[in-house]
Every structure is written in structure tokens, then in C-alpha cells.
Amino acid sequence: MTAFFSRFSRPFAALTSWRCSPEVNVSINLCRCVSLFVTMGKSDAKKTSKRKRGGDGEATEAEQGTAANNEPEATPKKPKSAEAGDQAGSGDADKKPWNLKLCSWNVNGVRAWLGKEGLEYLKKEQPDVFAIQETKCSDSKLPPEIKNVEGYNAYFLAGDQEGYSGVGLLTKIKPLDVKYGIGVDKHDKEGRVITAEYEKFYLVAVYVPNAGKKLVRLDYRMEWDQDFRAYLKELETKKPVVLCGDMNVAHQEIDLANPKTNKKNAGFTQEERDGFTTLLDAGFVDSFRHLYPDKKGAYTFWTYMMNARAKNVGWRLDYFILSNALERNISDSLIHSEVMGSDHCPVVLLLNI
């Protein structure tokens, strides 16, 4: 038996030529089967691994991401947005006839926005009219690339204070007339309103005053709301109105992520919300809520702090508001929350007019 165990420890090649009792041969054959089974198992495992890695031994992108982050996550995180995905709205615009596309975006500084390739969005989207707010740039310092966009007529209004407020309008359709301000000096010196007259409607691009930290400008905001509403109603005696821009108010609790903790903060005070309600009651319609009254998570502004955009902790401050007479002309109202370049995102209105 000592000789048996000594010879059994040699390679299997030696075993094949060694003769012993039938009992020992059974043991040897059993060892051979086990060895063959293990070898086949290793071979299959290698093939399976190779298939998972694309057949060439290289790890897939998902595997590389898992290895790098030590987390079982195959796809990168994207900012959350409204229920319809990155674009809040029906997503069925192609099914609804429209012949006019309007776009509005608070760019939070036109020079910084240009540096973030903001014009690429304009070139891709190709709206008929593109309104921007918070240009924060005097007319003399406007970059030529925003004043000379091919195919567009450009109009800008800056406030008296450099680096503050300011609005702009780029339009493929040359307006019949363009008016700056609303005719009230204390408001107009801040550069907040451009009005373009078209054949069938007025388009008013606005950057509404913010009530400020600790609501230091809330009283002024209330004066503004009243005077601005009167201006819109005066226009409406001649033609219907399309109002777009940063209204600096979340109208309803559904229009911001944290309503309970913001009731005493600028943009969600009862006074500002009531002012918005009064505007709608005067004969105007919020195009987005008209189409999507119950849609949650549809925001247009996110603070740069606390990773708010990735968490979709936002506010809906940017609107398209129309005279009731144009309600039937609304084809869709969209929020392009996937578009970066500012702390706001663009909003789009499709009209059949």
C-alpha cells in the first residue's frame, strides 16, 4: 500500500500504465473523472467570462464603471426631472398641429451663458422667437455673437445698473413694432420688458422683480404686479397677448418641491401667489397648467446649492401665459429640464395660429 500511494501521487500519465487490483483501478478512474470535470468547468467559466467582456477579454462599460466606483451601477446618474422624463410636457407635439414655436430662457448672465454653449440650444431648437432674461449686460458690452445670430432680428434692453436684470428678444419674424418698458419710469429703468407686435398678437418678454432676501422688495413687487397687469390689459384691447419669461413666483404648491418651508420666502409668499392668481383671473391662462394640471416635479429653476438640480428640488418660475382668446391655439407647452447652461432651463410654447 505504501508503494500504491507513492505511485498515486505521480502525474496521471504514469497512472495510465500502472496495473493494480480492481478496487484500486476504480479509485483511479474516479479521480480521472473528477479531474476532467474540474478542467471542463474551468474552460466553461473562461468562455462565459469572455462572452461577458465582449468576446475580446475587455471589460464592458458597465463592468468598468462598477470596477471604478466599486458600486453595482451600470449607468451614470442623471438629474431627475418631471414625470414625462427630461422634457416635461406631453411629448406628443408631433401629433398636434403647430406652426409657431416660441422659447423663453432665463440665462443668468448672457456672457456666461455663451461660454456654456447656450447658443447651441438655440441653433438646434430653431424657435421662431427666443426670449431671454437676466442678460446682466449693458448694450455696449453685448457680445457680437448674441447680437448677430444668423436668421434672427435682435432686440435688447438693459437696466441702468450694470450686471443686473436685462432682457432680450431674438425673432425670425420681423415685428411690426417693438416697445421697451411699460411706460412707468421706476420700473423701466431696471430693464425688464420688451414687447414685440406681430400680426395676430403681442409678445411680451419679461423678467419680473424678485421680492428679495427677507422680502425687502415685496412692497415694490406688489406695485409692479398691479402696473404690469394694467399694461397687459391695455395691450389686450388691441390684440391678444402672449406673455413669457421669469415670473419669479411659484403659483401653486405643486409648482415647487418644498412648499411648506418656503411660504415666507421670495417667490412663494401669499402676496405674490395672489398677484399671479389675479393676473389669470383678469383673462389669462397658464399654458402649462392648462394642459398638465396635475403634473408633479415639473420645475424650471434649481439653486446651485445642495445639488438641487440632480435631486430635482426646484421651482416652476418660468411661464408662457396667454390671453384666454388664444387658449384654443395652444398645441403644447414644454419644459426642457435636461438643458444646462443656467440655473433655469428653457420653456417652449407650440402654437397653431
Automatic annotation (TrEMBL):
- This chain belongs to the protein called DNA-(apurinic or apyrimidinic site) endonuclease
Cite a single GO MF annotation.
DNA binding
Give yes or no: UniProt keyword Heme.
Answer: no
Active site residues of this protein:
Y207, D246 (proton donor/acceptor), H344 (proton acceptor)
Q: Which family does it belong to?
A: Belongs to the DNA repair enzymes AP/ExoA family.
Q: What class of enzyme is it?
A: hydrolase
> What positions are marked as the site Important for catalytic activity?
D318
Q: What is its main location?
A: nucleus
Name the residues that bind Mg(2+).
N106, E134, D246, N248, D343, H344
Could you tell me which CDD domains the record lists for this protein? Ape1-like_AP-endo (cd09087)
Q: Would the keyword DNA repair turn up in this protein's UniProt record?
A: yes
Listed Low complexity bias regions: 62-71
Q: Which InterPro entries match?
A: AP_endonuc_1, AP_endonuclease_F1_BS, AP_endonuclease_F1_CS, Endo/exonu/phosph_ase_sf, Endo/exonuclease/phosphatase
